[in-house]
Design a protein that fits this description.
Blueprint: E1 22-27, E2 33-38, E3 42-49, E4 54-62, E5 67-69, E6 74-76, E7 82-89, E8 92-98, E9 102-115, E10 118-132
Antiparallel strand pairs: 1-2, 2-3, 3-4, 5-6, 7-8, 8-9, 9-10
Length: 140
């Protein structure tokens, strides 16, 4: 009855968001770079620091956005299904990312600029090629 025992009302926590779940990982051939793909379409690249096997944030970028396939009446998630590194040549690194329907090729390069005697390193990620709708079925 009322007043005999106090019931505690537990606040219901929101379920954890799946947007920040890791969906894909890939090391480059040298092991110096680690690319992490997330369910939200974000790619984070980590670079190895020295010989102590620790990785620091190098750059991050948005690889895929969600879209709607009108032919199959399906929503295509932005989730990164796979990341592949290509052997690099010169100063550029190349990687491919894909979601369920689209494959993208990215070029990543580091630009060094000096301003007032201080060197600044800036990483640029360029979308070089988009392979969209070149296949009939979802990539899984």
């Amino acid at each position: 009855m009322f007043g005999e025992a106090e019931e505690t009302i537990e606040e219901k926590e929101d379920p954890p968001s799946t947007d920040n779940w890791i969906s894909s990982l890939a090391f480059d051939s040298t092991g110096n770079y680690l690319a992490v793909g997330y369910n939200c379409g974000q790619v984070v690249v980590l670079k190895q620091q020295g010989d102590d096997n620790t990785y620091q944030l190098y750059t991050e970028f948005k690889s895929h956005d969600s879209e709607f396939d009108f032919l199959t009446s399906m929503e295509i998630e932005e989730k990164i299904n796979m990341i592949r590194w290509f052997p690099f040549s010169g100063q550029a690194e190349f990687m491919m990312t894909c979601n369920d329907k689209t494959v993208k090729l990215f070029k990543m390069l580091e630009k060094t600029a000096s301003q007032d005697g201080v060197q600044n390193n800036d990483v640029q990620v360029l979308n070089k090629q988009v392979f969209e709708g070149a296949h009939t079925y979802n990539l899984n």
